[in-house]
Design brief:
By secondary structure, the chain is α/β, with parallel strands linked by helices. Helix content is about 45%, strand content about 15%.
Length: about 270
Amino acid sequence: MKLGMINSAWEQHGVELIAGLRKTKEIGFDAVDIFQDPLDPGADDRIARTGAACRELGLPIISVVGVSLGLIDFNPSVRKFHLERSRAYLDMGRKLGAKNYLLVIGEYLWQKEVIPPEAQWEWGVEALKDLGSHAARNGLEIVLELEPFHLSLLGNVGEMCRFLYDVAHPAVKANVDISHMLLSKTPPAELSKLTGRVGHVHISDCDGKKHGDLPPGRGVVPFRPYLEAIRGTGFNGAVSVELEYSPDPSRIEDWVREAYSATAKLLRESGLRK
């Protein structure tokens, strides 16, 4: 498996885009995921520079990462905007030669008490049917993030499986975030339900109680059983390190190097990367 990282770890701390990509390659990562909104001012220039730099560095782009909570908003105009925005992510992914668009779809509104949760579910299914077709036309997949929060639409493996079944599009798959599995109280064996339907993997650590995205080894996640379970699903793509803010922003490079070394060791010991 390839070992990648999401470039947002650098930009959260003011490291310039191209400098961050060069550091990613220098540290030893095989690939990178790009967190970039295609509708931001100057996005076209950033997309072009990102693609050129990654080609120069020999650093393939696996995923473009986006959050579109409005896909399940109760306002039709908001849903329409986020559908168009998600299509723009897929178009950006095609331009960058990415494999997938990682999508965070959102949460139920108002504790499920005002808007029927079934309606939000159907809005999400309808959106992903449309986006799945757009992804296929662009030669990409969509990988959906399981978010371990109380009101997440896709908050556990059972809901992820039900959603993928309802969408029923081969270009729409699951992203497995290992720390999210622990936080959602998902044992490794549950991942067998996603056999053949895993399109991407995130790896990070946490304290077992709240979202953390720490370098592996700084928390309590038992990585080996989850990595074995992921292998059992038939997945053989990229594992991407996801990092939140470093406790010392001035030492962000040390933070990323630590995450790389710990993750590379885990993958090597699990027989997933040489």
